[in-house]
Amino acid sequence: MASEPFAAFVDVDGYRVRYRTTGTGRPVVLLHGIGRSLEDWEPLRAALPARRLIALDLAGFGRSQPLPDLRLGALAEHVAKTLDRLGATAPAHVVGNSLGGAVAMRLAVHDPARVASLALADSAGFGREVTWLLRALDLPVLWRLLLRPDEYGARTAERSLFHDPAFATPDRIALARELARRPGAARTTRQVARALGSLSGVRADRRGNLLAAVEALDIPTLVVWGDRDRILPAAHLTHAATALPRARTHLFARTGHLPQIERAAEFAALLDEFWAD
């Protein structure tokens, strides 16, 4: 999948970060999930042509260089520094999917003045349950087999993200395989997965502390989920409503882990309404 002409790189503390930006106005920051890249936001970008969108490859993913520390706090701080380098210092609407949702929440806690609102799509951090593929990354040796960058693995992983298999296009599968073959990609994915949880699932102590801190901030928050998510189950939306009782919630029907792709137009309409309020 070829890069669009507006994809670029910026140096942040000696580490290269890939980003893509379009539009004008208040910045909207887009943060993808584990093992993914900013390409996951292309359908939503097309559905929000009037917005100033800044999509980042998180450190160690896509084509951005990894950091020595890939825990949530370090990833969030690196996002903040990247936005400073891009001149996006005004309070931003931050949209995060999966891992990106947890990074978005950590960013809000780390620097609340930077975050105008949070929109969390099938976000990590709301429940212990997670697909066995990510839990198994905690096991020695097995993680290398699970993260092999072969055609079968890329196709299987891509199809697991969608309810409608038609969204697992040849281009998306090819990109997934390409990114998985980058030096250190598998080790980075495992490192981040282990920072979030273990074989038994997402760690409750870290999850609870983060959610309590976010709720205390009283930042306008929207949480959406796909009802057929096979990575983080839709029951997590109920957990989100309990942990963040002032947040708006929405459940997309017949949708998997990436509603920004499967339900781009509907998600864009929800965001526009949310931001208008």
TrEMBL record:
Q: Which Pfam families match?
A: Abhydrolase_1
Protein's UniProt keywords contain Ribosomal protein: no
**Keyword annotations of the record:** Hydrolase
Q: Which residues form the AB hydrolase-1 domain?
A: 27-263
Please verify whether the record's keywords include Nucleotide-binding: no
| Single GO MF annotation | hydrolase activity
**Name assigned to this protein:** Alpha/beta fold hydrolase
Species assigned in the record: Streptomyces celluloflavus
